[in-house]
Design a protein that fits this description.
The chain is α/β, with parallel strands linked by helices. The protein contains seven helices and six strands; from the N terminus they run βαααβαβαβαβαβ.
Length: about 180
C-alpha cells in the first residue's frame, strides 16, 4: 500500500516548515509522519491508527497508481501552493447582479451560521492564507458575530478581512 500527501497535506507541512524546524516538527508523531512522506515523496507499509487519522483528516491518501516521478510532479504543481485569497459568498438577499459577483450562474443558497465559517477559517489559517474576502454585506448584520469571526480569522494580526457589497452603497440598505 502506497501513501502520499494530499494537496492539503503537502501545503500544510510545507507551511509548518516555514515557522518551525524539522527537529521540532519531528517531536510530534503525526507531523513526523508527514515530514517523512514529504521527504520520501511516498511511503509504503501497513496503516497505523495515526496514518488512518491523517487520511481521514485529509492530510494523506492511499495511491497505488502513481510512481515517484508522478508524485514528485504532483507536489511541484500543487494547486494549493498558489492560493493566497479565500472568497466567501455570504449573503441572505442576493440579486446575482453585482459587478464583483463570481457566482452569477449558481443556484442561490443562504447561510446564517457564522460558527461554520470559523471552522472553515481554521482550515485556511493553518495553510497560512493571509486574505479573506466576503461577498455580501449581510454578513455584517450579525453584529458581534461578524466581529467575532473577523477577530477569529485575524487573531495573529497578520490577516486582511474584507467585505464587498452593493447593498450599503448602491441600494442604500441598512443591514442592522
Amino acid at each position: 500500500m502506497k501513501i502520499i500527501l494530499t494537496n492539503f497535506g503537502h501545503r500544510y507541512i510545507t507551511e509548518q516548515l516555514k515557522f518551525q524546524s524539522e527537529e521540532k516538527l519531528k517531536t510530534n508523531l503525526p507531523t513526523s509522519i508527514l515530514l517523512q512522506v514529504l521527504t520520501e515523496k511516498m511511503i509504503e507499509g501497513p496503516l497505523t491508527d495515526i496514518h488512518e487519522a491523517l487520511i481521514s483528516n485529509g492530510y494523506l491518501e492511499i495511491n497505488n497508481r502513481m510512481d515517484l516521478n508522478a508524485v514528485d510532479f504532483k507536489y511541484k504543481t500543487n494547486p494549493l501552493e498558489n492560493v493566497e485569497v479565500i472568497v466567501f459568498e455570504f449573503t441572505t438577499k442576493c440579486n446575482f447582479n453585482c459587478s464583483h459577483c463570481r457566482n452569477g450562474y449558481l443556484e442561490k443558497t443562504t447561510e446564517i451560521n457564522i460558527g461554520r465559517l470559523k471552522s472553515v477559517a481554521n482550515t485556511f489559517n493553518i495553510l497560512n492564507i493571509k486574505r479573506y474576502d466576503f461577498i455580501g454585506g449581510e454578513v455584517t448584520k450579525y453584529g458581534n458575530g461578524w466581529l467575532d469571526l473577523a477577530n477569529h480569522i485575524n487573531r495573529n494580526q497578520d490577516k486582511t478581512v474584507t467585505v464587498f457589497t452593493n447593498g450599503w452603497w448602491l441600494e442604500n440598505t441598512n443591514f442592522k
